[in-house]
């Protein structure tokens, strides 16, 4: 009897994390997937994590922010249903770089690609400390922990700046602001260190890409990949591809 052909579910959709080196892209993904903040090394190339979301498979691509890997960015963005543009709230430069260096990489993303603007390292900012005094909800622990005033820094990028960038991103993509998701719901301030807003960010994005999956399915794209076909990347144990 002939052996059944080996087929593996392939991701239904792709979400890409973009942003300058050191803003915390890898840490955000670790926080979400491993529920902890751990030491990182600067990413080389890119790596992906597969998330099962209900009946759907979503790949989240973590890319390298270092300039030397810049050329790879548009490759990782090809066919992306969503892009998370990430900056460090304590670094104005990391915010500026999003427009100067990273936005054009998204030209290869889907035409209906969804954008989120994410300011990470909220735990380092003084305004975050104030917020938490009134509403200290973070992962598991009371927040007082690491907020010694000596470690706090001035917040260099405000939420209004992020919302203004969101509007410019839509303009760059030729999209009508009124027909798109509102800036208030697409700009996030997070902390990979404490977990602040991290689940909310990723899970919002997962919900938002579901229509893109359904559209793809309606257009009749195969949802399996042939394991016997030549592979294009090496997989390691964690499901990452480098
Ligand atoms: N305080 C604080 N530090 C953070 C946070 N997120 C990341 N870091 C630290 O920032 C540094 C860079 O984090 P990474 O996650 O490696 O940054 P990246 O954006 O993946 O950098 P590349 O891979 O080089 O593009 C590390 O020392 C992290 O520990 C955060 O939310 N708060
Ligand atoms: Mg990284």
From TrEMBL:
Major place of residence: membrane
Q: What is its EC number?
A: 3.6.5.2
Q: Name one Pfam family in it.
A: Ras
* PROSITE patterns listed in its UniProt record: RAB
Q: Mind listing the GO biological process terms from this record?
A: protein transport
PANTHER family reported in the protein's UniProt record? DRAB5-RELATED
Q: Does the keyword GTP-binding apply?
A: yes
User: Any idea what this protein is called?
Assistant: Ras-related protein Rab-20
Q: Does the keyword Membrane apply?
A: yes
Per the UniProt record, the source organism is Tachysurus vachellii (Darkbarbel catfish)
One GO cellular component term, please give it: Golgi apparatus
Family, according to the entry, reads as follows: Belongs to the small GTPase superfamily. Rab family.
Molecular function GO terms recorded:
G protein activity; GTP binding; metal ion binding
Q: Which transformation does this protein catalyse, written as a reaction?
A: GTP + H2O = GDP + phosphate + H(+)
InterPro entries assigned to the protein according to its UniProt record, in alphabetical order: P-loop_NTPase (IPR027417), Rab20 (IPR041836), Small_GTP-bd (IPR005225), Small_GTPase (IPR001806)
Q: Where in the cell is it found?
A: Cytoplasmic vesicle membrane; Cytoplasmic vesicle, Phagosome membrane; Golgi apparatus
Identify which top EC class this enzyme belongs to.
hydrolase
Key words, A-Z: Cytoplasmic vesicle, Golgi apparatus, GTP-binding, Hydrolase, Lipoprotein, Magnesium, Membrane, Metal-binding, Nucleotide-binding, Prenylation, Protein transport, Transport
The membrane topology term of the UniProt record is: Lipid-anchor
Q: Which cofactor does it need?
A: Mg(2+)
Where is region (Disordered) located? 219-242
């Amino acid at each position: 009897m002939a052996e059944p052909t080996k087929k593996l579910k392939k991701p239904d959709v792709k979400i890409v994390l973009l942003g300058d080196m050191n803003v915390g892209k890898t840490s955000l993904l670790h926080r979400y997937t491993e529920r902890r903040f751990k030491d990182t090394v600067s990413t080389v190339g890119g790596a992906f994590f597969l998330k099962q979301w209900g009946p759907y498979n979503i790949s989240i691509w973590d890319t390298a922010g270092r300039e030397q890997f810049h050329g790879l960015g548009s490759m990782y963005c090809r066919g992306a249903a969503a892009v998370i543009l990430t900056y460090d709230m304590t670094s104005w430069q990391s915010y500026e770089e999003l427009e100067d260096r990273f936005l054009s990489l998204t030209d290869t993303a889907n035409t209906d690609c969804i954008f989120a603007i994410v300011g990470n390292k909220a735990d380092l900012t003084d305004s975050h400390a104030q917020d938490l005094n009134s509403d200290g909800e973070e992962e598991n622990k009371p927040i007082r922990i690491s907020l010694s005033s000596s470690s706090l820094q001035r917040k260099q990028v405000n939420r209004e700046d992020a919302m203004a960038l969101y509007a410019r991103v839509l303009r760059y993509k030729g999209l009508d602001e009124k027909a798109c998701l509102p800036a208030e719901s697409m700009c996030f301030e997070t902390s990979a260190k404490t977990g602040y807003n991290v689940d909310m960010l990723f899970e919002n994005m997962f919900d938002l890409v579901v229509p893109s999956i359904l559209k793809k399915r309606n257009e009749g794209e195969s949802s399996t990949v042939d394991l016997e076909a030549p592979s294009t990347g090496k997989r390691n144990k964690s499901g990452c591809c480098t």
